[in-house]
């Protein structure tokens, strides 16, 4: 995702790809996962075949155990 809310290293290049965000949230707390799913049936099939859980791409879970609580305190929800 290419947006001001997404952290990138200075030398990181932006690439155009087909992606979806796999958890409830947005690009500020969820990593994009490459996906060509175009409708609900193909999303369900992709989930069924995936080796990554739907929460596996959630950035907050990788930051710290308290990351989501900190977001709540900052008014994210």
Short description:
Helix content is 29%, strand content 8%.
Description:
There is one protein chain. This protein is α+β, with helices and mostly antiparallel strands and 77 residues long. The protein has one domain. 29% of the residues lie in helices and 8% in strands. The chain has a two-stranded antiparallel sheet.
Give the class from helix and strand content and strand pairing.
Answer: alpha+beta
Sheet with the most strands, sense and barrel status: 2 strands, antiparallel
Give the overall pLDDT as a whole number.
Answer: 76
Order of helices and strands: EEHHH
Number of strands: 2
Number of helices: 3
* Total of domains: 1
Distance between the termini: 21 Å
Question: Which tags fit this structure?
Answer:
77 residues; alpha+beta; two-stranded antiparallel sheet; 3 helices; 2 strands; 29% helix; globular
Structural topology:
Blueprint lengths: L18 E3 L10 E3 L5 H10 L9 H5 L3 H7 L4
